[in-house]
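so im writing up the methods section and need the Aminotransferase class V-fold PLP-dependent enzyme record in one place, dumping it here so i stop losing it
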Amino acid sequence: MSTDHDAILARLAELRAGDLPTRGGRTMAYVYDSGLDGLEELAVAAQAAFAGVNGLDMTAFPSVVELENDLVRRATALLGGGAGTFTSGGTESCLLAVLTARQYARGTRGVTRPELILPDTAHAAFHKAAELFGLDVVTVPVDPATFKVWPADVAAAITERTALVVVSAPSYAHGVVDPVAEVAALAAERGVLCHVDACIGGWYLGHLRRAADAPDIPDFDLTVPGVTSLSVDLHKYGYAAKGASLLLFADAELRRHGWFAHASWPGYPVVNSTLQGTKSAGPLAAAWAVTERVGTDGYTALSTRVHRTTRDLADGVGRIDGLRLLARPEASLIAVASDDPEVDVFVVADEMRESGWYLQPQPAFGASPANLHLTVTAAVAEEETVRLLLGELEKAVGRARAAGPVRVDPAIVEAAASLDPEALTAEEVEIALALAGVGEGGALPRRMAPVLAVLQALPPKLSERLLPEVIGRLYTAAGQ
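--- predicted struct ---
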């Protein structure tokens, strides 16, 4: 093992070279690039300056309070509300929203078996929260044409056990905004909390509506009567470094229900506002620095560029033979499906990756067919980048049509339907993974269309049983 400074950094650079690029706009999921010169360097410097500061105890490190208060003030001025908490990301913000609602329902209404109402388009983080915190999930369908939840269905699902209703602004899979005002009003009538998942859209939509030529944006934030909490990520359209999100509340009293405090031990008194205890203040400082640098006018300009580019890309996709939009995007997310049975979008995704572009494949679920997800960021908002993307996409569709779709043997699907995911033997797991094209070597195949096609064809519970096996093979350290 080398201890040489340069050799260590060289090894990291070597590893990084195998990843998707995080700059330039060609990775259209997971990363957010402002395209602004010097912004990443500022974030790195701010993060380094606070990397050793422990956010566990704000009385020892009062800078943590100052930075968090500044970010919450900026966010509530944009999106309403009276209190907030800085978290490590959208998942933690969603987890804390559910935890807070559970504790609130217990403490104020005596609910002992709480329920969580989710549209079937709600982010997986809410299902994770329900599993972790012991809530029963009540899933309601969405309109198969608009992919938005029907308010009447939400109202019908509310019971005395309901702790929280969730809506999206926008939903990740389709880029549309649920009818927040209607759902929130119905929840409020029954004394139930309503959370808006604006992790991906809040910062973007909040600033876009300030633009002189802003589109018609549905009401979605904490100024809407009945909305009691909202999650918004700063490491998405705030263009901060990863590990930065905010959970906003209507008031500090509601926020208090989600905090953990413990003094019944011989150590120091503990108060945690997040799921983490010890945590670096680096991401907090980086987010503060980036938001200070870009500012309200800067974010409005970036959001306007993204809006125009999303519109241009959506129009361009609509002109490509073999593709169609699943929904007209209401934010910065585009879902693209096939309207030609000979064009498999999973094959298109593989072809695009070979050309240096990452479009995220989304398997079919319910009324939503298999599709490609495109997250549009400011780095994509160049005329030449849009032209290149649409040109490569059209060529990828042509190659996918020539190759033909991935065919899954119906006998495999029939046999899989009879399996009990919870009772699979090790041998059955090996057979199922082999059918999906995943061998014992650990590495995933270069082309993922066959794997995705098989997983999509399996019952969801069986896919959920197999997915950890697939990912677990990537981790091969001794003892695992």
